[in-house]
Amino acid sequence: MRLLVFVASIGMVHLALSILYEAFPLMYYDEIVETSRRYGIDPVMVLSVVKVESGFDEDAVSPAGAIGLMQLMRSTASWLSKDLDPKDPLQNIELGVMYLAHLLKMYDGNVKMALMAYNVGPGHLRDGKFESSALRYYTKVMTTYRIYWMLYFLKFSQS
Questions:
Q1: Does residue 14 lie within any of the structural domains?
Q2: Rounded Cα distance, 50 and 4, in Å
Q3: Using CA atoms, how far apart are residues 1 and 8, in angstroms rounded to an integer?
Q4: Alpha carbon separation from 94 to 4, 35, 43, 62, 97 (Å, rounded)
Q5: Considering the domain boundaries, does residue 31 fall inside one?
């Protein structure tokens, strides 16, 4: 009987992991890693931002008008580059990483402030507008970041 319970519990763990792997995919991973490295950004952070922002839906459009995988406002994308198209998934990643790099530099490497500004904009963050929303966003990205690390990048030592 104990063996049957043990086997059943292993099956449940396998099912739970399968659901997590499906919910937290590595879509666009190679492109994210390559782009992130060029800008000196943690690729798992970028992966987490994409997951939270658009759920990897390259056609996503927010009620505010942000578009693409990294949910960039057209004005921000245009300010970053006149040559890149934020509707193109790979160029949207490029623009989003470029913007994150800019924000990290602006906030002296403070990931919390950079992510909050990514969500509400540096002006709104400075004015204290939407602070609770930005804090929830930061928490969501960091939770997603930890889940990605546990699923794909954390290596357990074997004795």
A1: no
A2: 41
A3: 11
A4: 51, 6, 12, 19, 5
A5: yes
CATH of the domain at 88: 1.10.530.10
User: Total domain count for the chain?
Assistant: 1
Residue 87 lies in a domain: yes
pLDDT single digits (tens) 60-116: 999 999 999 999 999 999 999 999 999 999 999 999 999 999 999 999 999 999 999
Amino acid (one-letter) located at 47: L
pLDDT at 7: 46
Residue 114 belongs to domain spanning: 26-153
Which residues belong to the active site? 53
Residue 9 lies in a domain: no
Q: Is the sign of the CA dihedral 138, 141, 144, 149 positive or negative?
A: negative
Q: Give the pLDDT of residue 156.
A: 56
3-state secondary structure (DSSP) of residue 120: helix
Using pLDDT thresholds of 50, 70 and 90, give the confidence band for residue 13: confident
**0.70 exceeded by the pTM?**
yes
